[in-house]
Amino acid sequence: ACLDRIDALNGRVNAFLYVDREGALAVAADVDARRAAGEELHRLAGVPIALKDNMVTRGIPTTCASKILGGWRPPYDATVVETLKAARLPIVGKTNMDEFAMGSSTEHSAFGPTGNPWDLTRIPGGSGGGSAAAVSAFMVPLALGSDTGGSIRQPGAVTGTVGVKPTYGAVSRYGLVAMASSLDQIGPVARTVADAAALQELIGGWDLRDSTSLREPVPALLDATRAVHGAGTVEGLRVGVVRELSGEGYQPEVLAAFRATVERLRGAGAEIVEVSCPSFDYALAAYYLIMPAEASSNLARFDGMRYGIRVEPSEGTVTAERVMAATREAGFGDEVKRRIILGTHVLSAGYYDAYYGSAQKVRTLIQRDFDRVFADVDVLVSPTAPTTAFKFGDKISDPMAMYLNDIATIPANLAGVPAMSVPNAVADDGLPVGFQVIAPARRDEKMYEVAQLVA
Ligand code: GLN
């Protein structure tokens, strides 16, 4: 059914860059046979899933939506892919994204943008717009995304799906093509909070091959979503509304939906506390220094020798350096080049203290703001994105306007805390709005519990 739905819709939605029909059907048939034989399988066995195209899949193209990786078929699987295969989830394909996960609309994909299933003239968010659109359009019930500054949550908000960025280190990043390693995190895209919880429980856990992965047991996330079906779970719950994330710069419909949900929580018995995190005002600026700095270093590996395309200079001698330059010139899109140049600049001697060094200090202040408020509240809440889905072309020529989409999602990445977006309401313009729940590090179960309350 999923494959038929993809066949029917993908021409218009462009959520998938690659569909592995035979591979997915083989896993599904194997699951049927094992179930028929009475074998006990994982609860998600047989549930089709899609992967953002920056997770490496053995023998299956992995492009990061960039021309530079043209023709590359990875020789190994990411840890999350190994885990999904072991639990026998059919992997139906790879989803569209902004090139190398840089963007908030999928318009930076080298293979054309993805349409928002709610209105195909609008963006599905980014960078993981393909995964969000695939779930939103019922092409698959589950997908994985990666979130460096909001790329799972903001697409979730504008497509009416659930998007989760787990605690940094909760899910292995081995085999995720790195963008900004200290911020990147793989997480679930789903239709319900419980589905997302079941998926994170499966993919979470320590991995020897990721030095930043947390060495602790995966919390009982699915149980956390079930607990709230009973009475009394709201009692004593303290919910912080972050002043800096719910005022200026947000579309009125988005704020109205957010406030209505906060009132619903209050009505259910939660205590609502207004909190202030003054350094969040500098989070966007710090992120757009740290992220390009790390990306400029991570993307140095695309040199025309190791992966994907190789372009020789059109004239003159062929030297390694000139092949690298010609390959990167032809292979990378404008946004990727912009960030590499910006990142290299902020890391250069003489500018390091002024830019990268200051940004790291701001990062520490943001972590302290979180520590301070989490001493007083269980979770923080905010709108996920400042606006509903905007039209194609609206922000593509203005990088600053595009970057401003991330104001509410970036603080969680800078501090490593878990955050998720749940569909909250449909705004007056007929488009979905997302509600963000942020929890302290390694308290993902608390985040799921509160998300289930508002879902
Ligand atoms: N929109 C943000 C950016 O362009 C987020 C990217 C991400 O989370 N991968 O950097």
Automatic annotation (TrEMBL):
The keyword Ligase applies. The active site is at K52, S127, S151. It catalyses: L-glutamyl-tRNA(Gln) + L-glutamine + ATP + H2O = L-glutaminyl-tRNA(Gln) + L-glutamate + ADP + phosphate + H(+). It is an enzyme of class 6 (ligase). Pfam families: Amidase. Keywords: ATP-binding, Ligase, Nucleotide-binding, Protein biosynthesis. InterPro entries: Amidase, Amidase_CS, Amidase_dom, AS_sf, GatA. The keyword Cell membrane does not apply. Its EC number is 6.3.5.7. Residues 1-446 form the Amidase domain. Belongs to the amidase family. GatA subfamily. Allows the formation of correctly charged Gln-tRNA(Gln) through the transamidation of misacylated Glu-tRNA(Gln) in organisms which lack glutaminyl-tRNA synthetase. The reaction takes place in the presence of glutamine and ATP through an activated gamma-phospho-Glu-tRNA(Gln). PANTHER family: GLUTAMYL-TRNA(GLN) AMIDOTRANSFERASE SUBUNIT A (PTHR11895:SF151), TRANSAMIDASE (PTHR11895). Heterotrimer of A, B and C subunits. This is Glutamyl-tRNA(Gln) amidotransferase subunit A.
